[in-house]
Design brief:
The structure holds three protein chains of three kinds.
Chain A: H1 2-7, H2 12-21, H3 26-44, E1 47-50, H4 52-67, E2 79-83, H5 110-117, E3 121-126, H6 160-167, E4 173-178, H7 184-189, E5 193-196, E6 216-221, H8 224-234, H9 252-258, E7 266-270, H10 280-295, E8 299-303, H11 308-326, H12 346-357, H13 360-373, H14 379-402, E9 405-409, H15 420-423, H16 436-441, E10 444-452, E11 458-465, H17 470-480
Parallel strand pairs in A: 2-3, 2-4, 7-8, 7-9
Antiparallel strand pairs in A: 1-3, 4-6, 5-6, 5-10, 9-11, 10-11
Helix pairs in contact in A: 3-4, 9-17, 11-13, 11-14
Chain B: H1 2-20, H2 27-44, H3 55-58, H4 78-83, E1 88-89, E2 92-96, H5 101-104
Antiparallel strand pairs in B: 1-2
Chain C: E1 3-14, H1 53-65, E2 69-70, E3 73-74, E4 77-80, E5 90-93, E6 100-106, E7 112-122, E8 126-128, E9 135-139, E10 146-152, H2 159-176, E11 188-198, E12 208-213, H3 216-235, E13 244-248, E14 253-256, E15 269-270, E16 277-278, H4 281-289, H5 295-306, H6 310-317, H7 320-331, H8 336-354, H9 365-376, H10 382-395, H11 399-406, H12 414-427, H13 429-436, H14 441-453, H15 460-470
Classes of the chains: A alpha/beta, B mainly alpha, C alpha+beta.
Chain lengths: 486, 110, 471
């Protein structure tokens, strides 16, 4: 059993079951993770902060509960990694930035409270692109992260550390945040499942904001069952987040029961990437998946996405504008990095602190965000983007009246290679083109591993469904994972 | 000649936006920054479409917000909020500010 | 060249809710710095605002009282600017769609002033520039306190009118129970927009904005000074610069705040953390039904129902708690004019002496009503009544009990008075002789002596009769 932990194939839910049955102790799982961390961290860089002491303390408490027959959830005792833009009380939360390198939040994010209540063990805070801005985890102040499956590549981003930790066996599951693809794309790069729930499903309280109307927290897991378990755990109503709609969400059992049930489902196949750069293998994976679903009774039809370039532009305009405003608070006054240079007054202190504390990509995005919000440009950019978004909402409503799920590649090309993104930052914007539409419109979307891309790198497909239709994602994901829905 | 002028214009805009963002840009970096921002802007400029009417109302049922009851809840760990700061005096955050406010900045309230 | 003064007022009132506008911190004051804070109002990373429902209701209530149209949704926007009293470096306000629009306010002069709009927003923290040399201190206790801003149309034409507008607005807010509107304490703040218009022409002049007006007096002085300043500039052929000016009451003048190059770009955009809240007709109606009576309504009622004079009605309604006390005293059976007299007379005298405000009064209206009844029945005379009232004022004494314990009931028993009269006459032969000799003043002296014997409790009429009988 202990070997299984080590090779990274044991899922979180199976581990939870084993612990619940008494076959394993919580500390066994923890020790396996920390052993892996000891072995691989210096090469991979998945974590920014480890919580070893805290984790073992928590493990003791949870073990007591399990021994007393009061296991708080099926995931009790499972070691979980949390992206470093999610506040953890008393544990440094940096957003991958010098600006918050020493920041210790005085409160736990809602999702962290949920994980703790479920008995999950927080083993550490994972590496990420600075303030979630990037798709390769290379803009992190704490150094880049390597893809455990092929070290020449990055694990994607911005939740790269979370994905890499799970793929490397350093954690059994992880949570990240997804603003334009930042959970799904790293999951794709590392052969994992990554879910971006419907906007407003998971409370953003304690998630350090990037784009408020598009950020969502989601699980990164080894199998769809884990994804379902974490999703149902995290999508509880939180009255302290006004955008958290509090609608009844499907339970873990409900999601398990629909996996593989694709008979009669109408699946739209998005074949044509906007720039024709998709790898040959990737398109083959897509065809195979289509065939598989068809064999299971789904109806499939090829479509073209409405206005993809418009969607990307609207997405970036809105994201950058909101980011510029959300990051305005980092001024060194009450927390965060404050310059040590002598300053003649307040304005200078703020400017210097921000200039020193933020990396280049973040600074560029803040400036661009302020540009589109500035008085002369607001109508032509931000207001226009909001209108475009509303128009797309309608187009996609029509689309989802004809189809249940859209199936596409998760990324148009291979994962970014190390240092590629730093040489040409703008090139990475194209990577968001499949994933960002779900963020823009608040839809739910899941990356599922399927086939392979190269010898070492796995393939990934993206499932997207309408708001509140996560069951359809799990049905299709289950089918692609081999469930037949019987 | 016009190209040089355009570049000047662009750099001026970048400097203005940097000031609006409370960021400093070193002179040597200004040129490359302007170029990069120009490229990013190209992505945004692809925004197109007919003028939709007041967006929010014309879409599908907009998500409805809710309000909270007026019941006080004390935040107990307020000292932790303060301890997050770089410098605290007499339970207040400290900032270096010129005492003569009228030139440097102003108070928004009365 | 003659000019008309064109004034618009932007007034901020602090709402007296239990909690702040976007978090559940208690909205109390007078505490040590940074005690009433939480991650939301301190702008910590990851914090999110949630609207306090009572703020929404207060805004709708005020909007209705000012005859405004209420918006179908409560929508918020971010106003982005960097300043250390503003922890997120943006304010959450309502720019694109204020909660209420197009109302009006009637001045006592009969002039109706348009209300352009009113909206909800959060207050900023406080800076202290004095406590530490060369540095400033930030206190977030006030950050997130709910504010309503009321913007008038530029239809006020004098300092006096501006002051009257503020007083009316204050009365309305106080009587609605949403704010105590005390300028000196900062729960009501006014900014003045002023420009001069050439008489006979329609073109408005360049306007300036004045801030830091902490009293009605400041408002009046500032308007007068700014009118003079602008007029002087225009007469000299110079231009008025559009600027924000800070008023200095001590110096009696204003200073420009922002330099003219720096006009701020607030980059307003819809607040993504707060989804629009639909405002149903039912909510508006419910609020309208429960609207408390405004001061003007009470004054009318006191005049028509209780036959008080307008002057008395205005005095009684100057402070809402006084008006409430008045009404409750009547409910306990007191005659309205008598109740009014006691409140305007003795009560306000003691208030002045002790420095208490109407909201500090703790005695029960039932006791005041009881005292009034005692005087009507003649069971206490006016001197005793005043003494009893002090007991009511300071200790909320029950007058019946008190006069019984201290034996203060008026002596009107003829026999007893006659005895006392005899004693006085016997004891003051000179005065008696004077009186019988024709000096009428001596009677007064003898009355005084009789009162003294009676320990002040004699009924003056009966006492006089008794004296006369034996003189």
């Amino acid at each position: 059993m202990v070997d299984l932990i080590g090779d990274g194939s044991l899922s979180a839910t199976r581990l939870g079951e084993a612990i619940g049955r008494g076959e394993l102790k919580v500390t066994d799982a923890l020790e396996a993770c920390f052993a892996k961390i000891e072995e691989k961290e210096k090469d991979l860089g998945c974590f920014i902060t480890l919580n070893k002491e805290g984790a073992f303390l928590q493990a003791e408490k949870v073990q007591h509960m399990i021994d007393a027959g009061r296991a708080p959830s099926p995931l009790a005792g499972v070691p979980v990694a949390v992206k470093d833009n999610i506040c953890t009380k008393g544990i440094r939360t940096t957003c991958g930035s010098k600006m918050l390198a020493d920041y210790i939040p005085p409160y736990d994010a809602f999702v962290v409270e949920q994980l703790k209540n479920a008995g999950c063990i927080l083993i550490g805070k994972t590496n990420m692109d600075e303030f979630a801005m990037g798709s390769a985890t290379e803009t992190s102040f704490f150094g880049s992260c390597k893809n455990p499956l092929d070290p020449e590549y990055t694990p994607g981003g911005s939740s790269g550390g979370s994905a890499a930790a799970v793929a490397a066996g350093e954690a059994f599951a992880a949570i990240g945040s997804d603003t334009g693809g930042s959970v799904r794309q790293p999951a794709a790069c590392c052969g994992l499942y990554g879910l971006k729930p419907t906007y407003g499903s998971v409370s953003r309280r304690g998630l350090i904001a990037y784009a408020s109307s598009m950020d969502q927290i989601g699980p990164i897991t080894r199998d769809p069952e884990d994804c379902a378990a974490l999703f149902s755990l995290l999508s509880m109503r939180d009255p302290e987040d006004a955008t958290c709609h509090g609608q009844m969400r499907p339970s873990y059992k409900q999601l398990l029961s629909v996996m593989g049930r694709v008979k009669g489902m109408r699946i739209a196949i998005l074949r044509d990437p906007s720039d024709g750069k998709a790898a040959k293998n990737a398109l083959e994976n897509l065809s195979k998946a289509r065939q598989l679903l068809s064999d299971l009774g789904a109806e499939t039809e090829e479509i073209k996405l409405p206005e993809p370039e418009n969607a990307v532009s609207a997405y970036y305009t809105i994201a950058l504008a909101q980011a510029a405003s959300n990051l305005a608070r980092y001024d060194g006054v009450a927390y965060g990095h404050r310059t040590k240079e002598p300053c003649s007054g307040l304005k200078e202190m703020i400017r210097k602190s921000r200039t020193e504390g933020f990396g280049e990509e973040v600074k560029r995005r803040i400036m661009l965000g302020n540009f589109v919000l500035s008085a002369e440009h607001y109508d032509a950019y931000y207001r226009k983007a909001l209108q475009v978004r509303e128009g797309l909402v309608k187009r996609y409503e029509q689309l989802f009246s004809r189809y249940d799920v859209i199936l596409s590649l998760t990324m148009p090309a291979l994962p970014p290679k190390l240092s590629e993104s730093l040489r040409d930052p703008v090139s990475l914007y194209r990577d968001d083109s499949y994933t960002c539409i779900a963020n823009l419109l608040g839809l739910c979307s899941m990356a599922v591993p399927f086939g392979s891309l190269t010898e070492k790198l796995p393939g990934s497909l993206l499932l997207t469904a309408n708001r509140f239709a996560e069951e359809k994602l799990f049905a299709a994901a289950g089918a692609l994972a081999g469930h037949t829905g019987e | 000649m016009t190209k040089e002028y355009e570049k000047e214009q662009e750099r001026a805009v970048v400097e203005q936006i940097a000031a609006l963002s409370d960021l400093e840009v070193e002179n040597e970096k200004l040129e490359s920054l302007t170029k990069e921002m120009g490229r990013m802007l190209e992505v945004l400029q692809k925004l197109s479409g007919p003028e939709e009417a007041e967006a929010a109302e014309s879409g599908p049922e907009p998500a409805k917000g809710a309000a909270a009851p007026d019941i006080p809840v004390e935040w107990e760990e307020r000292s932790d909020v303060l301890s997050a700061g770089p410098e605290v005096f007499d339970d207040r955050f400290v900032v270096p500010v010129s005492l003569f406010l009228t030139n440097d900045m102003e108070k928004e309230d009365g | 060249m003659n000019y008309d003064v064109v004034i618009g007022l932007e007034v901020h009132i602090e709402l007296s809710c239990n909690t702040k506008i976007f978090c559940r911190c208690p909205a109390r004051f007078g505490e040590r710095p940074n005690v009433r804070i939480c991650p939301v109002c301190a702008g910590l990373p990851g914090s999110l605002p949630v609207l306090n429902e009572s703020v929404l209701d207060a805004a709708i209530l005020l909007g209705l009282a000012l005859g405004c149209e209420i918006a179908p949704f409560a929508k918020f926007d971010r106003k982005n600017y960097v300043y250390p009293d503003n922890p997120q470096n943006y304010q959450i306000t309502q720019f694109y769609e204020p909660i209420a629009r197009k109302g009006s306010l009637l001045l006592p002069s009969g002039k109706r002033v348009g209300i352009h709009e009113l909206h909800m927003e959060d207050d900023a923290g406080k800076l202290d520039h004095e406590a530490l040399p060369g540095r400033s201190l930030v206190d977030y206790n006030r950050s997130g306190i709910p504010l309503i801003e009321i913007v008038s149309e530029p239809e006020l034409s004098s300092a006096k009118e501006a002051a009257a507008y503020l007083e009316q607005l204050r009365d309305i807010a106080v009587y609605l129970g949403i704010s105590d509107c005390k300028m000196q304490e900062g729960s009501m703040r006014a900014d003045v927009n002023l420009s001069l218009k050439e008489q006979g022409r329609d073109v408005l002049g360049v306007r300036t904005e004045m801030k830091n007006l902490n009293s009605y007096r400041s408002v009046i002085h500032a308007i007068e000074a700014e009118t003079e300043r602008q007029a002087a500039l225009l007469q000299a052929g110079k231009k008025v610069e559009q600027q924000t000016r800070k008023w200095d009451e001590k110096a009696g003048r204003s200073y420009p705040m922002r330099s003219k190059e720096e006009t701020r770009d607030y980059r307003y955009f819809p607040e993504p953390d707060l989804l629009p809240i639909p405002i149903e007709k039912e909510r508006i109606e419910r609020i309208r039904q429960k609207m408390p009576a405004l001061r003007t309504e009470k004054v009318e009622r006191y005049i028509s129902e209780y036959h008080l004079s307008e002057k008395d009605s205005l005095i009684i309604t100057q402070e809402k708690p006084m008006a409430e006390l008045f009404e409750k005293t009547i409910e306990c059976g007191a005659a309205p004019q008598k109740a009014a007299n006691w409140l305007m007379g003795e009560t306000m005298r003691l208030m002045r002496e002790t420095g208490k405000g109407a909201e500090d009064l703790t005695f029960s209206p039932a006791h005041l009503a009881s005292l009034i009844r005692l005087t009507e029945e003649g069971r206490v005379n006016s001197t005793v009544a005043k003494e009893v009232f002090e007991q009511i004022f300071f200790r909320d004494a029950d007058p019946e009990e008190y006069i019984r314990e201290h034996g203060l009931e008026t002596i009107s028993d003829g026999g007893m008075l006659e005895e006392l009269a005899k004693t006085v006459i016997a004891g003051n032969p000179k005065s008696v002789a004077d009186y019988r000799g024709g000096k009428k003043q001596a009677f007064g002296y003898l009355m005084g002596q009789l009162m003294k014997e009676a320990k002040g409790k004699a009924d003056p009429g009966a006492a006089g009769e008794a004296l006369r009988k034996y003189l």
